[in-house]
Design goal:
This protein is α+β, with helices and mostly antiparallel strands and 257 residues long. It is built from 7 helices and 12 strands. It has helices spanning 12-16, 19-44, 56-71, 89-92, 108-128, 176-179, 233-256; strands at 47-50, 76-77, 96-100, 132-135, 138-143, 150-153, 162-169, 183-185, 194-196, 202-207, 214-216, 223-232. Strands 1, 2, 3, 4, 5, 7, 10 and 12 form an 8-stranded antiparallel β-sheet that branches. Helix 2 runs parallel beside helix 5 (108-128) and helix 3 packs across helix 5. The chain is globular and about 40 Å long. It starts with 11 loop residues before the first helix and ends with a helix.
């Protein structure tokens, strides 16, 4: 569905036009960042985060567009793949979400963010020894600040193809002691946990599979983030084949019954 969201100010479209110049300047910096820090950290620790990813000016525009999505009533309860009988969804996951491609009206800055993350991942691919040709749409999420979070889980526990999780945070003046909302990673085989505060203009990357169980601790203020998942081509193709085989078998059994 096309998102119809008004710009918060008349000046914003003119500001958006300046972004390609910023993007060109940042791409050269990304190459060095990938070589020196991102790839080594992903291979050793399984995660890495970058502060001041877009800068105050562009990050503020992204935040404004995310707030517009929220205020337009387009965020819906996040879904669960499955849960036990008698367990409420709110006890597991308390965020509200919307899926956007970046091409929607009013999402120009979000699209710029996604393009920059795409560029970053494309620089990582060869050195990480993985094949990535596609990603998910962007999941815009808000924890409303009522003490909800997301219990410990793995993004891709069953080989659905998701390989790298990228989360961009949009929370100005965040104080974890007061507001909570920390993303805690439990790196596989490590003796420590990693606590990532959801600070404004911070981009977090980590492996999506069982190497990185993680949780979102209860949030006591509105907590915004944008998440995208990048797919390993071979694992994604295998997952699609399994799905086709499963649905084909189910269809045959239904016809025979």
């Amino acid at each position: 569905m096309m998102l119809r969201i008004c710009n918060p100010t008349n000046a914003e479209p003119q500001n958006i036009k300046k972004m390609p110049f910023l993007q060109q300047r940042m791409n050269s910096q990304l190459e060095q960042l990938v070589m020196d820090q991102i790839v080594p950290s992903l291979l050793d620790q399984g995660f890495f985060y970058i502060d001041n990813f877009l800068g105050e000016f562009v990050g503020h525009i992204v935040l404004g567009q995310v707030k517009n999505i929220h205020h337009a009533g387009l965020l819906k309860d996040g879904q669960l793949a499955g849960r036990g009988i008698g367990v409420s969804k709110r006890d597991i996951r308390g965020d509200k979400i919307a899926w956007v491609s970046g091409a929607e009206e009013g999402c120009e800055a979000v699209n710029f963010l996604l393009t920059l993350i795409d560029n970053l991942i494309s620089l990582c691919i060869g050195q990480l020894g993985i094949k990535i040709r596609e990603r998910s749409k962007a999941m815009v999420a808000c924890y409303p600040g009522n003490g909800t979070g997301y219990v410990k889980h793995v993004d891709n526990p069953n080989g659905d193809g998701r390989c790298v999780t990228c989360i961009y945070y949009l929370n100005k003046n965040w104080n974890a002691k007061e507001h909570g909302g920390i993303l805690r990673i439990f790196p596989e085989g490590k003796s420590y946990v990693a606590d990532i505060e959801p600070l404004f203009d911070r981009l977090l990357l980590f492996w999506s599979d069982r190497r990185n169980p993680h949780e979102v601790q209860p949030s006591y203020a509105q907590r915004y983030a944008i998440t995208v998942w990048y797919f390993d081509s071979e694992e994604r193709a295998a997952a699609k084949r399994r799905f086709r085989d499963l649905t084909g078998s189910a269809g045959q059994e239904s016809s025979a019954s």
